[in-house]
Amino acid sequence: TRLRLDWLANDAPDGAWKGTFRRMLYITIGYVILNVFLSPVDPQDPCSLLFNIVVFIYTVFVIYLMTVVRRRIRERDQIREERCIGCEDVVCAAFCGCCTVSQMARQTADYDLDEGRFFTPDGLDLESPVPAPVMHV
Prior knowledge:
With about 140 residues, the protein is mainly alpha-helical. It has helices at about 20-40, 50-75, 90-95, 95-110.
């Protein structure tokens, strides 16, 4: 929501981006519920075709979103690709998703000025910026 994008990582019209987090939450909850009901009871049993299709679609969807959002942040901040020129965003999203999400969070907020918070519209403190702690060396 910090980038004002919709659930498909497109620019959202006025205020439409406010529903992005809720929609993504519903999609993820739906995926988890399907995963629970479609996964085999015994881990030794093979997974059903439907289970594999659901996992594949959700995985591709998440990688696609991370790729597009990462590219948009790089373009906005004029950050060049350093490795895997032309496909760095998708490689990072597919093979290092946790690091990619962390990197994007740092690029969209200055955590020295704004403290991160749960259950806020953009994941940042609702109040005025929190001063950075003094570092003693």
